[in-house]
Design brief:
Layout: H1 30-34, H2 40-51, H3 55-64, H4 67-87, H5 90-105, E1 108-110, E2 117-119, H6 123-143, H7 150-159, H8 161-166, H9 178-188, H10 196-206, H11 215-231, H12 235-241, H13 248-263, H14 267-270, H15 277-285, H16 309-315, E3 317-318, E4 327-328
Antiparallel strand pairs: 1-2, 3-4
Helix pairs in contact: 2-6, 2-11, 4-5, 4-15
């Protein structure tokens, strides 16, 4: 009997399933096939750069975590949460969400401008963190060569309202497609600024502290990747940080080259890294559930085959690399 591949409704409902539990997304989702891509690590760093531009959101992080000394731990915990929600069982994903909500309910921080205390689980802050993350994931995946069509990109945004629900948001108030996501950023931009906290995040990401023997490796491997993440930000974000970036076309070329290099590493080897969410999901769901952005998972073809890359290139195009409406259908 073939297991169902229907993903859960963003509001929390789901169709009855038989066979193994595919979790909240399942092999029939765009998310399942995209979140196993190695460029997600660069996308995660980009999300941090973007999230730090909201003064309240970044203050909540700085006051309630030892970011300067445990930033690596924070990155890994975030990656573990994304992996659990994307590939874990429904129970594991719901448990991870409940844990995050429980922690956030106990935390507050001080507004750097007004001195006002505010709860970390303020819906406006949760929405900003969610949107910055999802936009960064989608932006890096597509700009580095994953041939998502506009409809598939919209579906990705819609699917990840499940993620928003898990952290405490009402999915009905979360952008459900790329146009709504772009509109959200246009609305929130006047609230963004690069204060002292944002510059601390920038300084860390440019040169994270490591043991002396690891400094050459950091300079050789980490700095170019962090530079790519920064360079892929919209132009207005570079202006807020006050630091230039390479020309958008240069960044796009580098992202595509980096994507080809990282994707040339066998997926089975990459997925061995702990905590191994994808391998666990494949053992649970069977070999047909193997994530691949180039493998159709249904007759509708969730993602494009390699041979259709030329068609995909005609379906989507890159404008200037500096805005949130970067990928769009040609007129």
């Amino acid at each position: 009997m073939r297991p169902s591949t229907e993903a859960a409704d963003p509001a929390g409902g789901s169709e009855p399933r038989t066979g193994p539990d595919p979790g909240l997304y399942g092999p029939g989702s765009v998310t399942w096939h995209c979140h196993g891509d190695p460029m997600m690590w660069i996308a995660g760093v980009r999300a941090l750069y973007l999230q730090a531009l909201h003064p309240r959101a970044v203050r909540g992080v700085m006051e309630n975590s030892d970011f300067a000394h445990d930033a690596w731990g924070r990155l890994l915990r975030t990656a573990d949460f994304v992996g659990t929600v994307s590939y874990g069982t429904t129970e594991a994903a719901e448990r991870a969400g409940a844990h995050v909500r429980k922690i956030h309910r106990t935390l507050s921080a001080t507004d750097p401008a007004t001195g006002e205390r505010f709860p970390v689980d303020d819906p406006e802050l949760l929405l900003w963190v969610h949107c910055a993350q999802i936009e960064s994931f989608l932006h890096i995946l597509r700009r580095s060569g994953i041939p998502l069509t506009p409809a598939q990109a919209d579906r990705y945004v819609d699917e990840n309202r499940v993620n928003a629900r898990l952290v405490g948001l009402d999915p009905s108030g979360v952008p459900a497609d790329t146009a709504a996501l772009a509109a959200y950023f246009e609305k929130v931009r006047p609230e963004l600024a690069a204060g002292a906290d944002a510059h601390d995040v920038d300084a860390f990401l440019r040169s994270p502290p490591v043991q002396p023997l690891l400094v050459p490796g950091r300079n050789l491997l980490w700095r170019p990747l962090a530079g790519l993440a920064y360079g892929s930000l919209p132009g207005w974000a570079h202006q807020l940080y006050g630091r230039p970036a390479p020309a958008p076309r240069v960044v796009t070329r580098r992202l595509r080259l980096t994507g080809r290099l990282l994707r040339s590493i066998p997926a089975g080897l990459r997925w061995q890294l702990p905590p191994g969410h994808i391998l666990k999901a494949m053992r649970r769901m069977g070999p047909g559930s193997r994530p691949s952005p180039y493998t159709p998972r249904s007759s509708a073809s969730i993602l494009d085959r390699p041979g259709r890359a030329r068609d995909a290139a005609r379906q989507t195009r890159h404008d200037n690399g500096g805005g949130f409406k970067t990928w769009r259908s040609p007129d």
